[in-house]
């Protein structure tokens, strides 16, 4: 018997076994909860679906039949609280295993799931509750999440129900007690109650590297777009386990913790922690023999600061990286230590993986890879003309046909939707150039480009050079106003252990950049900091650095 995902796709491979063409056959009214999870629970009930552990040493393992039963109990519980098709429900559950039961329950009911980070405060909740008319919120009992939600109640008229998991709290419904009373059978709804296909399934508030978060809406076909993500980029093993380092409040969680992985029948591995300690995560990979791994560049940057010879990482067969562009220095150091080539991928909350290094291909360190066979991608100029090799332009996706994996709209924002999606193209807002072999090379967000003395400078190209200097563990390149040049390049730098900020080190770093790239790109302004401002997804908030500079 083949893998379940083969029921949903037509794919061909080249002579080297690399994916060549890929076409999705979306069943009518496709619903991941029923058509994947429940189908696997019937076919392979005892197969491991989820391996969960936390920093305190607790561990739980769930089979596909366990997940079916628990998601059904949760669906029945949510229905008893009045949740129905189309209702908006926010999940703030960190990396708790209850998140998997809750998101699947909402899929089965047909309610819209809105995952969110546990770092939100009152202002964030008020904005989100009202922007989306959220009816119910399901929260972790840990930290101050419940307090922040309570502080937002008087300004959030649509919120009717508050549920907390693992520990009861006065004024809240208790999830653990609620599901204990429910049946573990949840028949697939019929007629007008059935949800699937083009119905709204999932919505994310974007991580907000600039401006207020947008509401990115996906329909029920979206999970099918992640077959390539898991099977052909992350190269997951049906007999292994896959770890994607992502909080469930970030869109990357559905890239690496549920949809494509379960369609490819691998076990999802979850490490539930609060503070990232590189050595501890490496120990977890070693202990549980993780076979495939995906993380943002920040994680790998800290990994290569460790003595990797102290850890047995031999179980790792494939490693991928996404979230920000990959610095070649990180690629080289990780390969030296593990023998693994980091396979970069690029995408957005609005998409699945759109440009990637497919399993079986030879990556070029620092390149995003080539367009996914799922999309028709191109790089164009401001007049929508394809650019020549080596010329910087915007990455766009053709949308003249229904595109599986692409978002449906920016919810309740027709103006933003039209601005990004027009003339049969979705405009990503990301700039890149293409080499003669068809590999894409990231330059930066349109808003991040620095214009200095007539030169256009992409942050990433300078950051890549800086990352090769042994004193630099993290950095961000931005432009600061200059009366003569318009803008000059600024480097905000986190120093590696053993280095101290000084004028001598500043000059050394400036000279290093001059010697290793075009001299006009060197940072005329250098600031040393303890940490860089980031979103929960680990993306550097260059806009915050710029805003602080404008206040000075």
Specify the structural class.
Answer: alpha/beta
Q: Which outline best applies?
A: globular
Specify the oligomeric state. Answer: single chain
Helix content: 25-40%
Number of helices: 16
**Main sheet characteristics:** 9 strands, mixed
Report strand order across the widest sheet: 4-3-13-12-14-15-16-17-18
Q: What is the averaged pLDDT score?
A: 93
- Rg is 23 Å
Beta percentage is: 25-35%
- Topology, number of strands: 29
Report how far apart the termini are.
Answer: 65 Å
pLDDT < 50 stretches: none
Structure characteristics:
nine-stranded mixed beta sheet, 552 residues, alpha/beta, five-stranded parallel beta sheet
What topology emerges from the helices and strands here?
Elements: E1 9-13, E2 19-24, H1 32-43, E3 48-54, E4 59-63, H2 64-80, E5 88-92, H3 98-109, E6 112-115, H4 122-132, E7 136-139, H5 145-152, E8 161-164, E9 173-174, H6 175-180, E10 200-205, E11 215-219, H7 227-233, E12 241-244, H8 252-256, H9 259-263, E13 267-272, H10 278-288, E14 292-295, H11 297-303, E15 318-321, H12 328-338, E16 343-347, E17 353-356, E18 370-371, E19 377-380, E20 393-398, E21 409-410, H13 414-420, E22 421-422, E23 425-434, E24 440-445, E25 450-452, E26 455-457, H14 459-466, E27 472-482, E28 486-495, H15 503-516, E29 525-529, H16 542-551
Parallel strand pairs: 3-13, 5-6, 5-7, 7-8, 8-9, 12-13, 12-14, 14-15, 15-16, 28-29
Antiparallel strand pairs: 1-2, 3-4, 10-11, 11-21, 16-17, 17-18, 19-20, 20-23, 22-23, 23-24, 25-26, 27-28
